[in-house]
From TrEMBL:
Domain NAD-dependent epimerase/dehydratase: from-to ranges: 3-231
Similarity annotation: Belongs to the NAD(P)-dependent epimerase/dehydratase family.
Entry-linked PANTHER family: DTDP-D-GLUCOSE 4,6-DEHYDRATASE-RELATED
Coiled coil feature spans: none
Superkingdom to which the source organism belongs: Bacteria
Organism: Candidatus Uhrbacteria bacterium CG_4_9_14_3_um_filter_41_35
InterPro entries in the cross-refs: Epimerase_deHydtase, NAD(P)-bd_dom_sf
Protein name: UDP-glucose 4-epimerase
SUPFAM superfamilies: NAD(P)-binding Rossmann-fold domains
């Protein structure tokens, strides 16, 4: 199968490209490299350095004739979406619709969309949170992700929207709030104090990027159309996470507590039971193991040193 991966130079995207190629697929990367400071390019992938909504994208569809799209390119910051909701909507809704229209004209057979569990569900009363089609997102980021799910559903193209928990692992950026694990690791490597926003009791469901990529690959071949949650169902507080990372590093670094941020969810844990049923998928990497792999990767690259 030939697959276009938008955002294929990013954290999840570059890992997914490797997983797809390992699985025997032909991969075309579309990424404008705005955020990708370090390039993780698989030599077996064809690369187009353009924005996924640019007019040149139509010629990529025409030339490459892909079977499917894994759409990961996005504005990824909850905080930034609150500060600049218009920019967030342009990237995550308007541009995605433009790409979707080009995909329809090109006869794309399947779209796998990187959606957001925590962003869409917000502070949900059900923990772990199962698939809720009537969720009320707390941030423009979550609204944008949910909105594009509706456009996918109305497109007539078979799709799977993967509502991801908090993804972590090698190649994650240590910028913004999206990658708290990579931020913690970088602070430790620099011997700088880390910041925790709020009281540190906010919880998240941390799922390894390797497990997430396996879910994408399996979603490409399923007959199922709709939404699936991808997470571990394990709840970990920010305080607990910080302690786990410092234990792995063997170093002690101070922590600065600051006020909580607008749009942040207090508890976020995903129930991925349906993904197990539909995709025969379940997380394999336990958090302490994944943290050790991630720490070793950052240390090997001497990030922040």
């Amino acid at each position: 199968m030939k697959i276009i991966v938008t955002g294929g130079a990013g954290f999840i995207g570059s890992n997914l490209v490797d997983e797809l190629i390992f699985a025997g697929h032909s991969v075309v990367v579309v990424d404008h490299y705005e955020r990708s400071k370090t390039r993780f390019e698989n030599p077996k992938a064809k690369i187009y350095k353009i924005k996924f909504a640019d007019i040149e994208m139509a010629s990529v569809f025409e030339k490459e004739k892909p079977d499917a799209i894994c759409h990961l390119a996005a504005q990824i910051s909850v905080t930034e979406s609150v500060k600049n909701p218009q920019k967030d909507a342009q990237n995550n809704i308007v541009d995605s619709i433009a790409m979707l229209e080009m995909a329809k004209k090109a006869g794309i057979k399947k779209i796998i969309f990187s959606s957001s569990g925590g962003g869409i569900y917000g502070d949900h009363p059900e923990i772990p949170t199962g698939i809720d089609l009537n969720a009320n997102p707390l941030s423009p980021y979550g609204i944008g992700k949910q909105s594009f799910e509706y456009y996918l559903a109305g497109s007539g193209i078979p799709y799977v929207a993967l509502r991801l928990a908090n993804v972590y692992g090698p190649r994650q950026m240590s910028e913004g709030e999206a990658g708290v694990i990579s931020i913690f690791i970088e602070k430790i490597l620099k011997s700088e104090p880390a910041k925790i926003f709020g009281d540190g009791l906010a919880t998240r469901d941390y799922v390894s990027v390797g497990d997430v990529c396996k879910a994408f690959v399996r979603a490409l071949t399923t007959d199922y159309t709709g939404i699936l949650n991808i997470g571990t169902g394990v709840e970990t507080s920010v305080k607990e996470l910080w302690q786990m990372v410092t234990d792995i590093s063997g170093q002690e670094t101070s922590v600065i507590y600051e006020a909580g941020r607008d749009g942040e969810v207090q508890r976020s844990v995903i129930d991925a039971t349906l993904a197990k049923e539909i995709l025969n998928w379940q997380p394999e990497v336990e958090l302490t193991t994944g943290l050790k792999l991630t720490y070793d990767w950052f240390k090997k690259l001497n990030r922040g040193v």
